[in-house]
Design a protein that fits this description.
The chain has a two-stranded antiparallel sheet. Helix content is about 45%, strand content about 0%. The protein is built from 14 helices and two strands. It binds protoporphyrin IX containing FE and 2-acetamido-2-deoxy-beta-D-glucopyranose (4 copies).
Length: about 325
């Protein structure tokens, strides 16, 4: 990104600032160019074949990267299975029976290990895969600097406390993003990740039947969407795992319709719709609903920020051989 911006820019000072703003990350766009030249195509093909078989996996991979980065930084902890040394994060509340796509990362890692053994971290693979997933789903592309290393442990408690819940008030969700070094704009634009993928009825059913304790639904839920959601999620426990699209209009396409839906009271999760309940976040939602180009551009920028959270570089951590196990 900085290369193309700078080669076309007539303003050298701007280029300088741009490069400086990313140089603190200790990552490098060419990190594996010599040691694993086929990395990009192996990852791209692995994501492509997974999505070709099951469209939803684009969403699942993107969410895995988010859940990796928000818990102890982007160091692949969500990929670890339980071990004798620690309990993994896969059974933490936000992940249990919900986080998915692990097999896609395993299968890409296997191919990468064959081509370049003990060279590429699992968390870098997940970072590239989530960028590719967004791109292959019709979204923006952004170059990803590399060189993250894998962590040596997982933390189930941190997964339970640091990941946002769909039932939390906006202030609490905002605080969680701020605590990771992100800001309100990052939070709004990254919530646009909900333009693809699905949610289980248990994550939004409280809005459908007895939101106010007097038997009424959430007044901030569009009437016709309410009707169709009640069809998918009847008011009984056995509908809890049924699925509804997070973006009811174009669920398989990475576009800005998530934001258009919020403007029309058609957000699925309460945590989505509350973005319209605050002047600052609502103004951003309105902008992204009207200017798809701005959403694409800002999404790439905020993804780069998110994929820099708490990274391990240099001699820290390790290059896992198997993403599920510490070496
Ligand atoms: C702002 C706070 C957020 C909350 C409260 C939240 C909550 C949720 C919930 C409850 C689900 C449904 C899970 C299930 O039913 O199994 C979900 C799915 C998803 N989330 Fe988020 N999320 C948030 C932010 C993000 C961010 C920042 C991203 C990525 C940039 C993201 C990407 C996704 C995707 C792609 C799915 C669909 C996954 C699939 O279909 O497998 N979310 N989220
Ligand atoms: C394709 O996806 C289905 C589920 O949608 C899964 O059962 C099957 O194993 C997948 N096939 C391949 C080759 O990944
Ligand atoms: C796990 O995370 C929790 C919550 O952030 C923290 O209090 C605890 O110290 C962490 N445990 C380890 C072993 O790092
Ligand atoms: C939102 O509502 C407006 C006005 O009712 C309508 O023109 C538009 O098509 C709606 N957009 C979506 C995404 O439903
Ligand atoms: C939000 O905007 C409304 C109407 O534009 C205004 O009346 C209200 O004071 C604003 N609230 C805050 C907290 O700025």
């Amino acid at each position: 990104m900085n290369q193309s911006v700078c080669s076309f820019s007539a303003v050298p000072l701007f280029c300088l600032l741009f490069l400086v703003s990313f140089s603190s990350s200790q990552l490098d766009y060419k990190f594996y160019d010599k040691t694993c030249p086929n990395l990009a195509s192996i990852v791209r093909y692995g994501v492509w074949s997974a999505i070709t078989n099951e469209t939803r996996l684009a969403a699942s991979i993107l969410r895995l990267h988010f859940h990796d980065c928000f818990v102890n930084g982007c160091e692949g902890s969500i990929l670890l299975d339980d071990s004798s040394e620690f309990t993994g994060e896969k059974n933490a509340l936000p992940n249990r029976n919900s986080a998915r796509g692990f097999e896609v990362i395993d299968s890409i890692k296997e191919k990468v290990e064959k081509a370049c053994p003990s060279t590429v971290s699992c968390t870098d693979i997940l970072t590239i895969a989530s960028r590719d997933a967004v791109f292959l789903a019709g979204g923006p592309f952004w170059p990803v600097p590399l060189g993250r290393r894998d962590g040596l442990t997982a933390n189930e408690t941190a997964a339970n406390t640091d990941l946002p819940s769909p039932f939390e008030p906006l202030e609490d969700i905002t605080a969680k993003f701020i605590s990771k070094g992100l800001d309100v704009k990052d939070m709004v634009v990254l919530s646009g990740g909900h333009t693809i993928g699905f949610a289980q009825c248990s994550t939004f059913k409280q809005r459908l039947f007895n939101f106010d304790g007097a038997g009424n639904p959430d007044p901030l839920l569009d009437g016709s969407l309410l009707g169709s959601l009640r069809g998918i999620c009847p008011n009984q426990d056995d509908s809890d795992t049924n699925l509804a699209p997070l973006d009811s209009t174009t669920s398989a396409k990475f576009d800005n319709s998530y934001f258009k839906s919020l403007v029309n009271n058609s957000g699925l999760l309460q945590s989505d719709q509350v973005l319209m309940g605050d002047n600052k976040t609502a103004a951003l939602v309105l902008t992204y609903s009207k200017v798809p180009f701005l959403f694409s551009k800002d999404f790439g920028t905020s993804m780069l920020k998110m994929s820099n959270i708490g990274i391990l570089t240099g001699q820290k951590g390790e290059i896992r051989k198997n993403c599920r196990l510490v070496n």
